[in-house]
Amino acid sequence: MTAKTFREPLSRERVLATAVRLVDAEGIKALTMRRLAAELGVEAMSLYFYVAGKEELLDGVISTVLDEIVKTSDQADWRAHLRQQFLAARQVMLRHPWAPGLLTTRRTIPGGVYAYFDRIVGTLVDAGFSYHLAHRAIHAFGSMPFGFAQEVFSPAAAGGSLEPDDAEADLAAMAAALPNLTAMVAHEMHGAADPTLGWCDSQVEFEFTLDLLLDGLERYRVASTSDSIAG
Amino acid sequence: MTAKTFREPLSRERVLATAVRLVDAEGIKALTMRRLAAELGVEAMSLYFYVAGKEELLDGVISTVLDEIVKTSDQADWRAHLRQQFLAARQVMLRHPWAPGLLTTRRTIPGGVYAYFDRIVGTLVDAGFSYHLAHRAIHAFGSMPFGFAQEVFSPAAAGGSLEPDDAEADLAAMAAALPNLTAMVAHEMHGAADPTLGWCDSQVEFEFTLDLLLDGLERYRVASTSDSIAG
DNA sequence: ACCTGAACACCGTTCAAGT
DNA sequence: ACCTGAACACCGTTCAAGT
Predict the structure, then answer these.
(1) Are residues B84 and B62 in the same domain?
(2) Are residues B37 and B95 in the same domain?
(3) Residues A43, A114: one domain?
(4) pLDDT band at B191 (very low <50, low <70, confident <90, very high)
(5) Which among B125, B145, B162 has the least Cβ separation from residue A180?
(6) In a domain, B7, yes or no
(7) How confident is the model at residue B44 (pLDDT cuts 50, 70, 90)?
(8) How far is A45 from chain B (nearest CA, A)?
């Protein structure tokens, strides 16, 4: 109300936190230097005092999101431990559905991520994994430590849809052109516990894939330790 | 040499093919309407006669790349068939390392992709998969039908590096801070068949993950058909 | 039908200047 | 130390105009 309104002092943390909030609310396209500055009640050029440029801003934004991933789990068993960890990470990504897409286009990786992966490797090795198998496990997990899987259809969005580009496509024609997909969706809808949720529960699918990987790795681990060819 | 040089007539195919070549050569940032037009010896506005705008151009570019994926395989066994198919797709992605990153940020999917997935589902169902398990398989594969896995470190680039952001970081300090990762890399380098290739062969890792998934799915398939709870 | 030039509303970023 | 205004070199896109 007064002519000179009080303004919270700027800081790198405040810049990044505001950027995350802006992208959550209006999408990644809304994150421009000028727009973010306006959100902070400041001129665009002021931001350059806290971030070197747009690229570093984007790096900082994903760092901020990754920091939300709590890197603790109370499970002792390696399998339960990683499972709980990755599922917790998934909750973070569901709060920031744009984060996977941004993360995969960045080519530099925030430093803290290495400490995170170091702990994962430690968990595996302590459980009897050879370093070789631990390495393969890291690759096999892909993006799951970050709480997301590579979802080709409706990326980063929950609730599966399967409509081709032109939505006005005749359903009968689609059934003829895509008989197997059509039959699959029909079967899945029929057997769904709660059909109002749609035919595809991405949480369930995430856990299925995670367990598929964990089970497969466990098999290799047991085989290698019983053969005593570990290491 | 003459004042009026002959110019190959424009077409949507030529626009998209030139765009792919431009991105292959100079990266995704180089793909602007103005730059692409210059590449075609034309003004930027002429492109709008063939593509509705930048977004449709990007959609067309990934469609063009995906069309390179040959959707045939001479293998009869479902496992060998899909394995060969996905590995062939990987060769396409290695030619266009920017394609995975672009594909995952696109939210519309080119129509032909549905036909491709329909064939995959058909292969699975013919092999005795229930529609339910086929659905899970599609999710588990993630981006592998497109020939790439979610590579967190050095995305889309072959040859693993593991240097944190600040490259001048003391190696001894890194070994202390990241003991497990350091030990893992040391073990892998020691055991590598050809150390000049680096400690990490991403082709081998891709195949390991693919086999891990295929083996796990095969186990479910056998279990469901012998229990005759399929469907 | 196909292509263009000028113009508009945006970008990220530099630089010299303010306090 | 922190913030700004004007300016530069770019964007994608519209629109009226050319052939």
Answers:
(1) no
(2) no
(3) no
(4) confident
(5) B125
(6) no
(7) very high
(8) 23
Q: Which amino acid, one-letter code, is at B173?
A: A
Does residue A45 sit in the same domain as residue A135? Answer: no
- Residue B44's nearest nucleotide, by CA–C1', is C4
What pTM did the predictor assign?
0.89
- The distance from CA A136 to its chain's CA centroid, rounded to whole angstroms, is 20
Question: Which residues are within 8 A (CB) of B231 and not within 5 positions of it... i.e. 6 or more apart?
Answer: A187, B130, B131, B132
The 10s digit of each residue's pLDDT in A112-171 is 999 999 999 999 999 999 999 999 999 999 999 999 998 777 644 433 455 555 544 577
Judge whether B178 and A115 are in contact, CB under 8 Å: yes
Residue B36 and residue B16 in contact, taking contact as beta carbons nearer than 8 Å: no
Which residue, among B163, B105, B90, B11, has the nearest Cα to A29 in the 3D structure? B105
What integer best gives the mean pLDDT of chain B? 87
Contact (CB<8Å) B139/A183: no
Residue A11's alpha-carbon distances to A16, A76, A139, B172, in angstroms, are: 9, 39, 37, 33
- Name the residue range of residue B84's domain: 78-149+201-230
